[in-house]
Amino acid sequence: MGGPEPYDPVEKLEDDMKLFDGGRAPNPRRVRVFLAEKGLTVPLVPVDMGALEHRGEEVAQRNPLRRLPVLELDGGTVITESIAICRYFEELHPEPPLFGTGALGKAKVEMWQRRLELNLMASVAAAFRHIHPAMKEWEVPQIPQWGEANKPKAIEFLRLFDKELAEREFAAGDAYSVADITGMIAIDFMKPARIRVPEECTNVLRWYAALTSRPSATA
Amino acid sequence: MGGPEPYDPVEKLEDDMKLFDGGRAPNPRRVRVFLAEKGLTVPLVPVDMGALEHRGEEVAQRNPLRRLPVLELDGGTVITESIAICRYFEELHPEPPLFGTGALGKAKVEMWQRRLELNLMASVAAAFRHIHPAMKEWEVPQIPQWGEANKPKAIEFLRLFDKELAEREFAAGDAYSVADITGMIAIDFMKPARIRVPEECTNVLRWYAALTSRPSATA
Questions:
Q1: Distance from B66 to chain A by nearest Cα, in Å?
Q2: Do B106 and B172 reside in the same domain of the chain?
Q3: Which of A201, B50, B101, B135 is most buried, by CB atoms within 10 Å?
């Protein structure tokens, strides 16, 4: 329980596509962790977000929103949005299922992926982008009061999530899913956002430790 | 092209479940429009959001985030998050497909549903909640500067979306999907948020007119 699961020993190379990747940023990492869990390798095109390269033409001509990651398929078709890219690979390579199985299982993964993204990751991102001095050029205007208002939202959600995790191993049930990927990366993102998991949230801490011990966590 | 599509004449009654519904609010409406497009009828439990009833125990014991809509299945299992509820019905009743078909088609619906939700609907919601006097008790603290910062984000996205709609009928391709539902409701939500579609966005206006002429729009 909770330890790393074995990867599919056959690595599937998706060499007819390329993934414009943003290094340490949370969203590009969501896709890399997902691919690692699937045992898939996609050629990466590194984009230096620290140097604001994602605002340049190479990205803009593929994603006018100028955000990463961007998946370009053979022939030039583009898919953006981390979860949309993950869903594309889920359809092509259904095993192991990371978006749930059955109507109720799929709905629960969707529900928890969204809860973790909209209540935890979005709050952490707002705190980081609206407060951190390094984000001044990224978030215009920076509104520190909005950043501060988001910190208690993240904490409040973690307390609620902690009660849920008392009854099960993973975010959406007994199986690892894309909801766990979003949650793990949101918690990692709390460090630069200077928000800490309350120490009484022992179920969250147990869950986070299990996720970060999987080989995919370093992707 | 663009006109209402015929509904499945057989109305399927999902009377072993109930949907806690929030009337005019955007998220509950997303699910009602989705059900109308599927030709499904689910017993509704009305909750008066104007009287803050969604903060009460009836909702909280089912959704600790105290938000609507909430779907309760026979036996008490609960699904929250509009898109998770929609996906549950998509799995049970695949026709007509509203989350796309095939790996690329599903990825495109996911991509556009997210783009419309995160760039348009979320910006409109932030403008409404952080500026409108009626939202003082809902959004604490109200930060008018953050509300104002979101208005140009919504407009900027609409200009980008307008270029996309020059080449196709619906948000994610040639078929109506859940992405269109999110987009239509986001535009309706612009009225109380006091944001207007730029008149040069003629493709957006054509698309919006087609969506609002479908029988499902009044759901």
A1: 12
A2: yes
A3: A201
Q: Using an 8 Å Cβ cutoff, are B96 and A191 in contact? A: no
Residues A214 and A107 placed together within one structural domain of the fold: yes
Model pLDDT for residues B57-98, shown as the tens digit of each residue = 999 999 999 999 999 999 999 999 999 999 999 999 999 999
The region, left, alpha or beta by phi > 0 then psi within -120 to 50, assigned to residue B215 is alpha
Q: Is the peptide bond before A133 cis (omega within 30 degrees of 0)?
A: no
> If you ran DSSP here, which 8-state letter would residue A198 be given?
-
- Residue A3's pLDDT is 55
**In this complex, do A143 and B141 lie within 8 Å of one another by their Cβ atoms?**
no
- The CA distance from B152 to B158, in Å, is 10
pLDDT at B41: 95
Q: The CATH number of the domain where A148 resides is what?
A: 1.20.1050.10
- Counting Cβ atoms within 10 Å, is residue B74 exposed (0-12), middle (13-18) or buried (19+)? exposed
What residues of chain B have any CB closer than 8 angstroms to a CB in chain A? 64-65, 73, 77, 79-81, 83-85, 87-88, 91-92, 102-104, 106-108, 110-111, 114-115, 119, 141, 143, 145-146, 149, 160, 163
| Averaged pLDDT for residues A132-161 | 96
Q: Which residue of A has its CA nearest to B163?
A: A64
Asked if B102's CB is within 8 angstroms of A91's CB, the reply is yes
Q: Exposure pattern of A68-91 as b/e (b: 16+ CB <10 Å)?
A: bbbbbeeeeeebbbbbbbbbbbbb
Task: Print the domain residue range for A72.
Answer: 12-92
Rounded to the nearest 10 degrees, the angle between the axes of helix B144-165 and helix A144-165 is 80
Domain boundary (B42, B71, B92) is at B92
pLDDT tens track for A11-29? 788 889 999 999 889 999 9
- State how many domains chain A has: 2
- Picking from B64, B102, B160, the nearest residue to A160 by CB comes out as B64
Q: Is residue B119 located within the same domain as residue B174?
A: yes
Q: A195 and A107, same structural domain? A: yes
Number of Cβ atoms within 10 Å of the Cβ of A18: 16
Are residues A80 and A44 part of one domain?
A: yes
